[in-house]
Amino acid sequence: MAVDTIEQTREYIGMWVTKDGYIRHELLAGNRYDEARGNRKSAYQGSYKITGNHIDYKDDTGFTADGEFIEGVLHHAGMILYKEN
C-alpha cells in the first residue's frame, strides 16, 4: 500500500514551530509563508512549492532554502519544526 506524500494530503498547511517556540513558520494555503522569529513577527515572508515531501522556499528578497517533511516533522535549514495543532 502506497503512502501519500505531504503534497497529496496538503497536511503541510498550518503553523510549524521549533521545540523552543522561537521560530514560528506558517505555511499558508496560497503557497505563501510567513515566518516569525522570537518577537519579530513576519521576519521573513515569501513563496513555497511542495514536491512530494520536499519543500522549496523563496523569500521576497530572493533568498532560497529548502526542507523535507519526514514522518510528520519539517526539517528545514538545520531546524526541526513540529506542526502545531
CATH topology: Lipocalin
Helix content: under 10%
What's the end-to-end separation, in Å?
Answer: 27 Å
What profile does the largest beta sheet have?
8 strands, antiparallel, barrel
Number of helices, where a helix is a run of at least 4 consecutive DSSP H or I residues: 1
Question: In the CATH hierarchy, what is the class?
Answer: Mainly Beta
Please identify which CATH superfamily we are dealing with.
Answer: Uncharacterised protein family Atu4866
The counted number of beta strands is 8
Oligomeric state as shown? single chain
Structural class: mainly beta
Can you describe what's shown?
The protein has 85 residues and is mainly β. The chain has a single domain, classed as Lipocalin. The chain has one helix and eight strands. The protein has one helix at residues 6-9, and strands at 14-18, 23-27, 32-37, 40-51, 54-59, 64-70, 73-76, 79-83. Strands 1-2-3-4-5-6-7-8 form an eight-stranded antiparallel β-barrel. A hairpin with a 4-residue loop joins strand 5 and strand 6. The chain is globular. InterPro entries: Atu4866-like_sf, Uncharacterised_Atu4866. This is Agrobacterium tumefaciens protein Atu4866.
